[in-house]
Amino acid sequence: MEAANQSDGPVIQVEGLSSHYGGKEVLRDVSFSVTREEIFVIMGASGSGKTTLMRQLIGLSQPAQGSVTLLGNDLTKITKSELFEVRKHIGVAFQGGALINSMSVIENVELPLNQNTTLDPSTIRIMSRMKLDMMSLRDAENFMPTQLSGGMLKRAGLARAVIMDPNVLFFDEPSAGLDPVTSAELDELILGLRNALGMTVVVVTHELESALKIADRIMLISDGQILALGTVDDITHSKDPEVQAMLQRRVRDRVPVGEEYLDHLTEDEL
Amino acid sequence: MSSPLSSIGRGTLIALQELGRMGIFFAMVTSLSVRARWEIKVVVQQLRFVGARSVVVVAVAGGFVGMVVALQFYDTLVRFGSVSLLGSAVGLSLVRELGPVLTGLIVIGRAGSATCAELGIMRSDNQIDALECMAIDPVRYLLFPRFVAFTLAVPLLTAIFIVVGIFGGWFVGVAVFNLSAGTYFHSMADSVVGHDLNMGFTKSIAFSIIIVWICTGKSFLMHLNQSIVFGAEGVSKVTTDAVVAASISILFADYIISALML
Fold first, then answer.
1. Which of A161, A38, A157 is nearest to A91 (CA)?
2. B-interface mutation test, from A52, A55, A60, A95, most B Cβ less than 10 A away
């Protein structure tokens, strides 16, 4: 297994990734790379394949074809124990926080250190409190997950994701379900983590405003394929009509209404 | 439209696939007993949940079952003038059959269903994925402690059921029907031998493994079953399926063990 801290080469390298689900092709020949300390945003509509892509980037599912190299390790070829070693160097912040319901906030944050290190409990507690301070959650350390708001859940999940000071941080829909103010706060946190801790960040989102604010590069996915890949300027100035439609939030097909809709129905449906 | 034959074929293939997955799951969890570090704190938590918190319901059930069994046997034995065998009948029924089976069903209803639902919610909510992403093996952290807890707790609960049931039978036989206490316990001691206790103990161990295997496996593997959706509906379905499957499985195992050991 390669060392997690490589000084050169991309942090993530994806080659020819293809994936199926229930007989349907979800990803088709996707190739890209993510460089060190970059904030790389993967954007797409619902059902475009971005969540499937993220799961394959972190080794939660295997592609039908292609390879994913994370921190120098081909996830399609390594053993389960090697994959667990790689995961000690990444952090994943899930959409709803994914906190363990039977544990308090601070117990959740301490969990990776408790399980993966031999640090004594008092040191672990100090480190966890530092991360909760960073997320402005120190006062909620003894709350149970069911007592937290949506924004607090995400920040607690983020505190847990960064407790091991990972090289790469993955976000799954960080702004989903948040109000604009809380969403903006989370964007600032993401930027702060990259700037202060030098993390590489991969964000999967469908929130355009957040993506344009935080991204170094954006990859647009549509129907399982890469539609566009480039800097924020490249994407916003793209002449591709589908890219512009996504940026301007235009519907793909005009939705028929009234009499037109009745005419649109087939005989079978009637 | 598919024919009935192809529906049967499809259903059989799905059932075999499920059985294969559950078999691999069982091998995966049990192999940890020799190679992984034990989460003692989680084992103790689970023992408290499965065992300690089930004592009252098991004891109450045992008491009433013992009383009913004594009542029913008394009514039959009195016709043949064999009331002195009441202790024997109650003891053998509880030790060989009713103790292990009814304790198993109670544990399924209480701890098994709760465990299945908890793991189902964890799966739906990405908590199990989160554990994997934290480099924590969910099989070692979540499942193996539950296997240990159920395997330790169910035989002990069965013993409590049987003991309380015996005293329930004593209450009916001695306090209600004026049978001599000495006759009650003496006939029990004469009839209930080591082989009967072995049978009861073997059944309780077997049932504990079946219960935890099905109740954890059904929910832990629900993401591999494409007919189940995540969320409340999916969790409800796997929990119901697990309770039904575990209940029928222990009744089937009861027959097999009885046939082999009698």
1. A161
2. A60
* Backbone angles phi and psi of A176, in degrees to 5: -60, 130
> What percent of chain A shows pLDDT beyond 70?
91
Contact B47, B153 (CB under 8 A): yes
Q: Which of B44, B127, B141, B224 to mutate to test the interface with A (most CBs of A within 10 A)?
A: B127
Contacts of B36 in chain A (CB under 8 A): none
Tens of pLDDT, residues B72-119: 999 999 999 999 999 999 999 999 999 999 999 999 999 999 999 999
Q: Show Cβ contacts of residue A188 under 8 Å, excluding neighbours closer than 6 positions.
A: none
Is it the case that residue A178 has pLDDT exceeding 80? yes
ipTM metric: 0.87
Helix B232-261, helix B99-107: angle, nearest 10: 170
B227 CB near a chain A CB, below 8 Å? Answer: no
Residues of A with Cβ-Cβ distance to B121 under 8 angstroms: 101
Nearest Cα residue in chain B from A161: B134
Chain A residues in contact with B137 by the CB 8 A cut-off are: 84
Q: Do A111 and B134 make contact, defined as CB atoms within 8 angstroms?
A: yes
Where on the phi/psi map is residue B56: left (φ > 0), alpha (ψ -120 to 50), or beta?
A: alpha
- B243 SS3 class: helix
